[in-house]
Amino acid sequence: MKRRELIKGLGVGALMFPLTAWTKEIFGQQSYLDNQSKAVLDLISSTFIPEGKQKGAKGVGVVLYLDRYVQDCLNKNEQEKVQLGIDFLKNQGFSLKNQMEREQMLLNLKASDSQQWFYDFVRSQTILAYTNSEYVLTNFYGYEMAPGYFKGCVNV
Predict the structure, then answer these.
(1) Taking Cα atoms as reference points, which of 58, 64, 61 lies closest to residue 32?
(2) Which of 46, 56, 78, 96 pairs as cysteine with 74 (C-beta 3.0–4.6 A)?
């Protein structure tokens, strides 16, 4: 049993996940995708998690997370796959469709062998980004940046 390698691997894996909640402000103005591609990606993420009584993917700003993730975490081959998937949906008129038609188009992507990777990637990263956003963590999970309080007036 190689415990040291296991512990080292777990440590590195833990650092890869976000340790705190994220907000729109941490991403700044730098962008990898052009505005049209970001708009289509925003529509895709808001199709997966639509707005309702609570903020959806669009209100939280999931597209900013996805843009930065594509830029920093994917290799060139995967970046090209993402761009091809976005271009495919652009050419199909994805942004002109209503919610039900967009859902059906995404389900068709899932069934397609050539576009399944794009569908799985965008879906999983949208869910991850939404559930790790400051809005969700503070409003639904009770996340506190520094839990525990100091009460200096308590008698010992």
Answers:
(1) 64
(2) 78
| Residue-by-residue DSSP string for 94-156 | GGGS-HHHHHHHHHHHHH-TTTHHHHHHHHHHHHHHHHTBHHHHHHTS---SS-----TT---
d(CA 60, CA 126): 11
Report whether pLDDT(90) > 60.
yes
| Cβ contact 57:28 at 8 Å | no
Token couple for 74: 């994917």
In one-letter notation, the amino acid at residue 46 is S
CA distance 103 to 34: 23
CA 65, CA 24: separation in Å to the nearest integer?
A: 8
Which are the contacts of 26, defined by CB distance < 8 A and separation ≥ 6?
A: none
Query: 145 and 20 in contact (C-beta within 8 Å)?
Result: yes
Distances (CA, A) of 31 to 19, 67, 92, 148: 23, 7, 24, 38
pTM: 0.73
